[in-house]
Amino acid sequence: MTERQTLKTRAGDIILDARKAAFLPSSQTLLVADMHLEKGSYLREVGRSVLPAFDTQDTIARLRDLADAYNPARIIALGDSFHDIHADQRLSPEASSQLRAIHSENCKLIWILGNHDPDIPSAVSGERQDHVEIDGFLLTHHPHDHAAGINICGHYHPKAKIGSRAGSVTAPCFAISEDRIIMPSFGTFTGGLYVSDPAFVDVMPDLGAVSLTYHDRLFTIRYETQEQTY
Amino acid sequence: MIEVPAKIEHWFTDQNWRIRDYQRSMVEAFERRQNTLLIAPTGGGKTLAGFLPSLIDLSDKPDGAPASLHTLYISPLRALTNDIERNLNRPVDDLNLPIKIGVRTGDTKSYQRTKQRKTPPDILLTTPESLMLLLSYPDAEHYFSNLKTVIIDELHSFATNKRGDFTSLALSRLKTLAPGHIRFGLSATIADADSAAKWLGPTGSPAHVLEVKGDAAPRIQIMDPETRYPLGGHNSRFAVKEIYKAIKTANSTIVFVNTRAQTELLFQQLWQINDDHLPIGLYHGSLSRERRQRTEAMIASGKIRAVVSTSALEMGIDWGDVDLILQVGAPKGVSRLLQRIGRSNHRMDEPSEALMVPCNPLEAVECAVAIKAIDAGQRDGEDYTDGAMDVAVQYIVNRACAGKFKKRQTLNEIRSAWPYRNLAKSDFDLLVRFAEDGGYALRSYDRFSRLNSTSRGYEISTPQQARRHRMNIGTIVEYAKLKVRRFPNMKSKRGRNIGDIEERFVMGLAPGDTFLFGGEVLRYHGVRDMALEASPAPKRTPPKVPAYAGGMMPLSTFLADGVRTLLADSQNWNTLPEQIQNWLTLQAQFSDLPQEAGVLIESFFDRGVNVIVVHSFEGRKVNMALGLLMTRRMETLGFKPLTYSITDYALTITSMEPVEDVESLLSEDVLSEEYEMWVVEAPMVKRSFRKIATIAGLTEQRLPGAKRTMKQVTFSTDLIYDVLLKYDPDHILLRIAREEAERDLLDIPRLRNWLADVQGRVTHKALPHASPLSIPAMMQLGKETVIGDAKIAILERASHDSQAAMRLNKVQEFINDRETNS
């Protein structure tokens, strides 16, 4: 059973799911970020990796599982859904049709455009948006301040390392502050940026807590000092 | 006795040498066309014995005879080939013999390669990898057609591993191309000459064995330092003053250590106290070719007083007048130690001098056991296994690069290599199919289609595939590496490559960090164009040490048994330094001594966790496997194991709950019940999969035309492993990976025997705290492996702590609010 946790924010409830997704109950919206579809084939093309990754199949299969579980009114992908602008040429027909199958009367697919995918392959259905605002939630790819509500964004692939005398664990995480939640990357084949990295600290100097996703479990840890979490 | 041409006899006399009987026997063997394995102690003129017949045969070569390859010499070390070239050219030049000698290794420049392929030398010195590359060209058939002799040097050092499998396949191919040639194997003294002879001869006709006895026994001592021995770890700092003193007493010393990181550390430590400015050098495989060759030349010409080295300098024919060998750290094997000691006084009749510097008490015991074994003329046993399948795949593709082949013929060729004598037809078919299209799950990817099946046999699918294959020939799989580019200072624009370094280590560096490389402390600037850029750091900056991979040498079974025997009986302790004897006495008083049969297990409570130490003395692989299985069982039984760590001698497990009935954890059924579970998850299998995928050509270390500016992407073979497990669980590579993990990473056969032996003979001591014998094992803490569920426990603990703190904060907020409101 996958763990979920409800986070109360000033814009309303948000459910964090250990499968690296989030759900907004008030608007029945499922959120995922940074799927990087066809990253495996991209790496192969530029000669950096040679094995088939099956990463696209896996990512889409997991997205379908989530859609089945939440039965959302809409799914919003927070950018970098496709790894590069030529991804559509490599997207297999099965993958396209699976994506089309997710998009339906009852469930709208909305693609927020990211830096990797300023354009979404035309074979893929669904709206294209720069950003979306629902209730008090501002959904973007890059962080964007929202005066009264909460910004939910992607782009940074946050991960955190928890140390102890018995060893350490590194896992992708939701990075949470007063007014912003940065989502973990949903893609099967993506790396991460430590929340302690100076580049991340610049973006979220007021990081309050991390919620690590590990083996279908969620572990929320307050982010206080460098000594405890790094 | 056979006649040697007078001018060659004279040349020997002029050098104050005489031709030895066994060297003449090799000339006879050549005349009789007899495959021969020459076993002789190091430094006995063994290499010359291998070449003498060829020199004689070539000495009356008529002028103007067409250039053709007469003798092929294969060495496991490329450094050796340069050395041999130097030494062979002496008689050739002195006697003005019409013999051309060429070297062909990974270091050979491309214009030289082209020249060699056009006009072959009479004698070609090469490595197994370069030979396989030559065999991959269509002209190999012509190139090798007049071959008379193949000489395989230092055969003992690689016949039992994958590189040996690889070489045996190349030899087999040569036999097809030039059926008339013979094989000479040269080997140091070994325990199992019969198997080595079988390996050398084609399947079914073992080579003739010519064994030379009678080396003077080396004089070996264990250093008894005035300082205290460290109780664990492998750092030689405590003895560096005495190492330096020993270097000063000798003319020329080689200081052997066991890992590359240790060479850097010790080199640094020696220079810190080098008040006499002795020329002390550094040598290991990560340094640039220029630097290695420079150091080699300095040793050969006697310009260096000491060189700190890894096993890279273990072999060679002449390192000048080295008169002292220092072995820092445990020897790990008797044969290895002898090989190292043989580097000094490279003449057979004089004893070699060696001084051993163990770095912890158990290493001292190991040293004493090794010395005793050498005195008694004993050697480690060799372990011949069936040829590796991933290597066979590589061979099949290599064969296809050279031209079309028929399956039946190639299967026969492979089977005539002794390690592959039992290769099943069905397995061979699977391997060919894998080379053809990658197997079921990978079929749709062009990349994996390396062979085309035609009516006239199999051929390589595209020229790109041939190119890709040739760039990745070999069996040595290394972590991705970056060049190290050294700039004289921070602002300088002109850098120079000084070696290479594991990418893994680079990922842990931030700009400004310092590290030891090539004997100096460097400051890291950044990575550009696939190179790490750095400049010398200001003096007295504490460095991070490069984390070189693959440093661990396995402890030989023979030595492990010896250590246990020595410990068991205090009568034997007189060969140990006094400090170590006292340490053992303390162990006997506080707990117990491990006995020859059975196993000693100690348990105690230490800093908040329960600790179990199993003193198996069975080597890292067995301890690793035992750790995986025991912790799994402890998890089932609810003892909440946290971590385990291993040394060659012991396995240490920490757990939340104490274990009373330790013996039950060691019952033989762990190998059936827990083992099945392990096979499914198996981090070890993933590890061996990575190597196998590389050797079998599924993924590669070097890529043609990889863009230099591209960001380094660390590719996860783990992910692919998972994918294959899901979509193609019967994939041939998965099977090979499982088999190999069982044998090479975990040594399940050895574990099975050991478990059977200790049944009913477990001595369990519950102690108030760690015993002397357990302390070295405890010092591994911090390097331990966290068990699967323990990772969850760590996260749970952290999140509970965090939630508790949040609750307390809520209390505080509540009080604050109440105060504000009131």
From TrEMBL, chain A:
InterPro entries: Calcineurin-like_PHP, Metallo-depent_PP-like, PdeM-like, Pesterase_MJ0037-like. This is Metallophosphatase. It comes from the Bacteria. It comes from Algimonas ampicilliniresistens. Residues 30-124 form the Calcineurin-like phosphoesterase domain. SUPFAM superfamilies: Metallo-dependent phosphatases.
